[in-house]
Amino acid sequence: MNISAVLIAIGSAVLFGLSAPVAKILLDTSDPWMLAGILYGGAGIGLLAVHLAIRGIGALAEARLTRRELPWLAAAVLSGGVVGPVLLLVGLVRVNASAASLLLTLEGVLTALLAWFVFKENFDRRIALGMLSIVAGAVVLNWRSDATVGDLIGPAAIVGACLAWALDNNLTRKVSLSDPVQIAMIKGLVAGPVSLAIGYATGNAMPPPATVGLGALTGFLGYGVSLVLFVLALRHLGTARTGAYFSIAPFIGAVVSIPSSASQ
Asked: Which of 144, 172, 182, 216 is the most buried (most CB within 10 A)?
């Protein structure tokens, strides 16, 4: 087992897991489309600064994206950089942060399923058993016998975000041998402005400066740096295994969210 790659995957999960509770708080002062744009814009601009800072340093040189890889990256940006974040934020408006974090465990499950059955990655029984346990835990912890159809909109949006990110993860695997900073930077610089443009088109305004600043920092760490680490892990572990380790992210978010959920 590649211990370094495992630790990198776990580091990616920790950063992303911490971003969900922060995003939930920021939704009090921001529309989902605008916040999605701020999160990815922060990731893109922050990684652009990193890219410029390390450019020319031979020891850190990575392979550049090729023209043949661009369609894979474009599809990943659309699914994971535009559709996924907005569905998550729509869900967070209707679901408390701890419950949303637990629902996000389904991303790892859907990532593995797509890797095995659509992208033909090798099947692993141990990972399959772990995924089954994750699904069972998410169902038990989120089950409500008195739930109405309206109550299902939030969870359904979060599951949709998980599916979008699962597709993103598998598509990103196709370009994972290229520069991870460049990959994550492009995703942020494209997805951020697109989401902001949609937000403005639907009549929303930019949130307060404090929300923008904290959102940008959260996006840089929780979406940008996290994605860079995720891509590095993909190289050595494959999509299903990386997704399995990344599945700890929602539990981190759930633990962090407990104090705020308890006070509501």
From this structure: 172
